[in-house]
Amino acid sequence: MPHILITGAGGFLGQDLAVALLKADPSLDLTLTDIHEPSKPPSSSTVTSLALNLTDASAVAKLLEPSYDAVYLLHGLMSGGAEANLELGWTVNFDSHRIILDTLRKSHPGTKVIFPSSLAVYGPQQQTTLVSETTVPQPQSSYGAQKLMIETYLNDFSRRGLLDGRVVRLPTIIVRPGAPSAAASSFCSAIIREPVAGVPTTLPVPKSLALWVCSPTTVIENLIRIKDVPSSKFGIWRTVNLPGITVTVQEMLDALRDIRGEDALKLIKDEHDAKIEGIVGSWPARSETSRADGLGMKADSGLIENIKTFVARYGQ
C-alpha cells in the first residue's frame, strides 16, 4: 500500500490533508509528525503519529529509515515568528528542511517531495503587478528568504534526478480555523473567524490592501493533485504558483457584513502595525496561473462562498 509522510501534521493544513488523503485512498499507510504528537484522523488505515524535533539529524534519520511514496513538508515557523526570531526561523525553516532533503536523496533517491512555498518569496512589487514563476524573487522577510532557499535546493536536487520535487507557492489561506498564528497574514483569517465567533479582533493594515487568497479546501485539493502530476510534465523547473483570487481587505469586510451583519464589523478595531503591513504589503496580489492550470490545478471559488463554507463548518 502507498506510504505517505506529512511533517507539520499537527496544524490545520496537515490535519485536513491527512483526512483528504485517507478519503481518496482508504488503504493508505500514513505517517504524521510534528513537534507535538499530531491527532490521528479516524480511519481504518494504518496511521502513525510521532512527536519529533526535525532539527535533530538523528531523529530525522530514524523517521526516514522506511521509504515513502511521497513526503509533504508542511512544518515551519510562520512569517511573523520567523521575522521576530532570526535564529529559530533559519533553524526550523531552512536547516530542518535541508536535513530532511539530504537524508532522502542519500537514503531514498527519487522520493517525491511536495514543498509548500509562499508568495513571500516575491519582493516590493506594485499591488497591480502580475507575477509568475519567472518573476525575479526579492523577499522582504526572513520567512520569504527561507522559503526561496528551499525552493532552490529542491529544484537543484530534482534537476540532478536525486529527488522528485514539487514546489507550490500558496496564496494566503482564508479562512484558517483555530487560534491566531504567528503568520504576518494571520489577520486575514482573524477578521472573519473571530467576529463569526463573537470575539473582538484587530485590523493592522489599510482596508485598501489587496491580497492573493485561496480557500483551505482548494489548497488541500491542489496539494493532492500536485502529488499525482507526472514528473515529466514539470520540465526544468518544479515551482508552481497555485490558483487564487484577488480581494481587498474592504471586500473581505463587506463579505463578512453580508453574511453576518453589521454587528460583526463592530468587533473589528483598526490598529495599524507598520511591521505587518511592511511584510504583507510586499506580497503580490495577482498571480499568473497558466502553469498551474496546465498541470490540472483547481481554480478557487469566490470569497462569499469561501466564507459561507467556513461559517457552515465552524460558525455558531
Automatic annotation (TrEMBL):
Residues in NAD-dependent epimerase/dehydratase domain copies: 4-194
Keyword tags: Carbohydrate metabolism, NADP
Residue ranges the record marks as coiled coil: none
Any GO MF annotation of the entry: oxidoreductase activity
InterPro entries assigned to the protein according to its UniProt record, in alphabetical order: DenD, Epimerase_deHydtase, NAD(P)-bd_dom_sf
The keyword NADP is annotated on this UniProt entry: yes
Protein's recorded name: NAD-dependent epimerase/dehydratase domain-containing protein
